[in-house]
Amino acid sequence: MTAPWAAGDDPQVYSVARSADVVQIRQVIRALAQQCRLSLVDQTKMITAASELARNTLTYGGGGTVSAGVVSDASKRGVAAVFEDSGPGIADVDQAMTDGWTSGGGLGLGLSGARRLVDDFRLHTVPGEGTTVTIIKWAR
Amino acid sequence: MAKQDNAVDLVGLLAAEKQDLAASWVREVQESLGRRVGAAELDRELRELYEALVEALRQGAQDVHAEQMSEVRALLTELSRNRARQGFSPSETAISVFALKTVLEPALRDGSADTVRAYLQLGRILDGLGLFTIETYTQTRDELITAQAEQLLELSTPVVRLWDGVIAVPLVGTLDSARTQVVMEKLLQALVDTGSEQAIIDITGVPAVDTQVAQHLLKTIVAARLMGAECTVSGISPQIAQTIVALGIEFDGIVTKASLADALKLALRRSGVDMVAHAGVQR
Amino acid sequence: MSDRIPILRIGDILLVSVQFDLEDQTVLNLQEDLAEQIVAKSAQGVVIDISALEIVDSFVGRMLATVAAISRVLDARTVVVGMRPAVAITLVELGLSLGGVSTALDLEKGLAKLRRPASSASQ
Predict the structure, then answer these.
(1) HSE of A136, CA atoms in CB hemisphere, 13 A
(2) Contact criterion met (CB < 8 Å) for C103 and B228
């Protein structure tokens, strides 16, 4: 699992322990998305994806952290966020990525929906140890 | 101090018959470009470049990326950008640099081994500058193409108001995923701006759609519904109808009409407007 | 933690205007309060104005669908008004089409929709 950050990137780490933290993550991602000049639609998609994943971290992972910051490659800039928890992990990733499948009473759109909203989506999970989800939205 | 000597040799090669060489260089380039660049302008461009190159070599520049070459690179960048904008080909652009090699060739005829060595080294530097020119040229062309694509996108996606509360986008030409997305965002924003509850997407002028484009159309219609507006798709050609069925795209719950006129009629009826044809009016 | 969004009443219509980014618990409270108020005030319609919301994720989306379903069971109609274009595009991409929810462009059109007969408003 490689982190999206390069030297010089300066991601901030936020804890996700309460429902109010999910609101804060949305605000943090909005500020970063505006800083990167993402289009309004892309901003909205990125914030929504982050909201879904932060809620997953809280509900299924029993809390964890989010690192968020600006990333860049040769020609473009983007917003990246890494959601980490040390919860039960996901036993069947394919099943968890299916629309409508849920283990916790939600709509089952969190993971699959978030993946459709962003440009890069990486999921790393070890049953019994935890889950890490990395997402990036690039400015066009 | 070998390096220093070398540099002096290079400068010697270029600076010995300075005016003469620069003038032949300009002539050589002028021939290859025809009359498309003004003689005075070309003369100024190349002489400046020549001066800068001699100065850079005097300061010991070894290749195109050397610090001393920064002035040369700046001039070459400007030259390449101008050529790209004026529509010259990459060869025609690079020839401005390579022609200097041709011009220097006579110096080899009665030259010593040192002159040949200097010529070869200068040749390598000029090759580097030539590549730099082509790179800058390509970069400029890419920027031009991107800018034009954006302008086209703007031009080709008008949202028009057909009636109070009824807007339409007449789509013409091939739709790709990016263009469809732009049109659709514009359409949804126009719903808000004009307070329209009826939208018509007319695809009479669209020769074909692929799965992605059809999906974008569908998503837009659902998004419009979420905002409280209704979309009708009009002008679906027999070919596109066949594509939609063949691709297995679900068009359920989407209202389609054969023509823009039929779609407008429906939109008006939905907004509570009655159309009455008066008897006795000449047609 | 127990923030509650005010529910206004105009005649037999309940009006909710969501003005800020909501915590999940506040969303659940609103759902509960609306169900109670529909019965207590014998409301015929509910208008939820989300024009100030910059994002609607699946949690809020689910609340909107649930309130619409609850109000149908209680013989009232719910109209969600003012969803922004970017929000609508994102919800569709997320996979949420809010099938059973009535919508309108703005508050005025939402209220007008509730005044029309049920058959045309369900469109």
Answers:
(1) 16
(2) yes
Domains in chain C (CATH in brackets) are 8-117 (3.30.750.24)
pLDDT in tens, B175-213: 888 888 888 899 999 999 999 999 999 999 888 888 888
Q: How many CB pairs under 8 A join A and C?
A: 73
Q: Indicate the residue of C21, C56, C84 with minimum beta-carbon distance to A23.
A: C21
Q: Which residues of chain C make contact with A40, given a CB cutoff of 8 A? A: 86
Q: Give residues with Cβ within 8 angstroms of C76, minimum separation 6.
A: C38, C43, C44, C45, C46
Cβ(A97)–Cβ(A115) under 8 Å?
Answer: yes
User: Which residues of chain A have a Cβ shorter than 8 Å from any chain C Cβ?
Assistant: 19-20, 22-23, 26-27, 30, 40-41, 43-45, 47-48, 51-52, 55, 99, 106-107, 109-110, 112-114, 116-117
Domains of chain B: 2-150 (1.10.490), 160-270 (3.30.750.24)
What is this structure's pTM?
Answer: 0.74
Of B185, B197, B223, the CB nearest to C105: B197
Query: Kind and range of the H or E element at A126?
Result: strand A120-126
**Structural tokens at position B268:** 């008006």
Amino acid B156: pLDDT:
65
HSE-CB for B244 with a 13 A CA cutoff? 18
Q: Interface pTM (ipTM) of the complex?
A: 0.91
